[in-house]
Design a protein that fits this description.
single chain; alpha+beta; three-stranded mixed β-sheet; 2 helices; membrane; transmembrane
Length: 186
């Protein structure tokens, strides 16, 4: 990396590298979308080590942890509006998009906080050595008019997940899908 100030993605990648190095492939739990890898918000992704399994239970679970963080577990990427509504019930205004492989949302669709100003502590991920797959959002890092933006590309055939996490100042326009890959510069 050059001597310029590290971007949000650079700082997050530096923080996640030791966890990825310790990850060991393991069998995917049944009835879950296995997320054995960790994807870095914005510009990188790691292929999931398990098999994407459709399941007949709830698509996700959202709960508040004792420290005030909002824990999100996604079991099946099929209900982005339900997840958005559930996050809102926990005080997190969110734009949630589940995208097929090869599709991204046309940008710009919001006034985003610059990546180098996004707080690393806003989101943390489950340990890679556990059976649970979740991420936690810390709402204290979101201003009253800000929106948590979570877009995910899921390729079940190749067992890959790529996601982007951003913060928008104000509302976020609906997603108009266009060809692309999350993490690939436009």
């Amino acid at each position: 990396m050059s001597t310029r100030e590290a971007t949000f993605e650079d700082r997050l990648l530096d923080e996640l590298r030791p966890m990825v190095a310790q990850a060991r492939p393991r069998p995917a739990p049944r009835r879950r979308l296995a997320l054995g890898g960790v994807a870095v918000a914005g510009l990188a992704a790691v292929a999931a080590t398990g098999t994407a399994v459709l399941h007949d239970g709830p698509a996700f679970a959202v709960e508040r942890d004792p420290d005030g963080a909002v824990r999100v577990s996604i079991f099946d990427y099929r209900d982005p509006d339900g997840l958005r509504q559930r996050l809102a019930a926990f005080g997190v205004r969110a734009a949630v998009d589940f995208l097929p492989p090869g599709k991204v949302c046309r940008e710009p669709r919001a006034d985003y906080v610059p990546r180098d100003r996004m707080p690393l502590a806003m989101v943390d991920f489950s340990p890679l050595d556990g059976n649970q797959n979740y991420f936690r959002v810390h709402p204290e890092y979101l201003g009253p008019e800000q929106t948590f933006v979570y877009a995910v590309q899921v390729d079940r055939d190749h067992h890959e997940q790529r996601f982007m996490i951003r913060v928008a100042n104000g509302p976020v326009a609906p997603c108009t899908q266009v060809p692309g890959r999350i993490g690939t510069p436009a």
